[in-house]
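Hi Prof. W.,

I finally got the Ribonuclease 3 prediction working! I wasn't sure whether to trim anything, so I left the full sequence exactly as given:
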Amino acid sequence: MNLVEEHVGIEGSDQASKLEQCQQIIDYRFRDPSLLLSALTHASGAPHRLDSNERLEFLGDAVLGLTVCEWLYEEYPEYNEGDLTKIKSYVVSRRACGKIAISLGLDRCLIVGRGVTRNRSFPKSLVSDVFESVIAAIYLDGGTEIIRPRLRKWLADEVRIAVESQGASNFKSVLQQYAQRELSHTPMYRMIREVGPDHRKAFMVQAVIGEREFIGAWGNNKKDAEQRAAANALAELHDQPIPFQDDNKKE
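And this is what came out:
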């Protein structure tokens, strides 16, 4: 074996090892391994740019976005378009995708050129790109039913963080997620009192989780009262000051 053949053999062995490692990480075995090879190959390590993961990254970005949008639409019916957009933007960001790729170990499966391998660590954009390209490869090889549950598993923490971080605009949804996750109950809202003439009514509502009742809150309509009641419940659950406690003095 000459030096060229030996070099090719070593490279082939390394690629096979990385493909196997990646399939173990994602818990999926490809029917067409060439798709995964393309997904893991950075342009610097490809014989031709079209053999790299750039085209798969393009598709993976769309698959990721659609999957997350469908997920949020189904799981968070009380969120408006603006809230859903903020959550989705957080979850599909380069920061989030790169974080997930590294936590899975996909960065160890990358096939790159020598110039890139001299770096101590890969750029975040490169690691984020391989996550999207692997998503596309799984989608093409196995279809929606294969990629959807994996994305829900991989992205679960990022979705939770995004929902809780923007919760100031929708306390009811935040309380629902917390109560179902930590208390195994779904919050209910109980009308306590209503005052005023028909054209200027005010409503007092309290949140109830299981057998626990929380401090109620007033609102100019039932929807606002429920949001404020949820905010009070969240504050109680986290031993924080009650934001709408003074409302209980209303006559």
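The longest helix spans residues 3-26. Does that look reasonable to you?

Thanks,
D.
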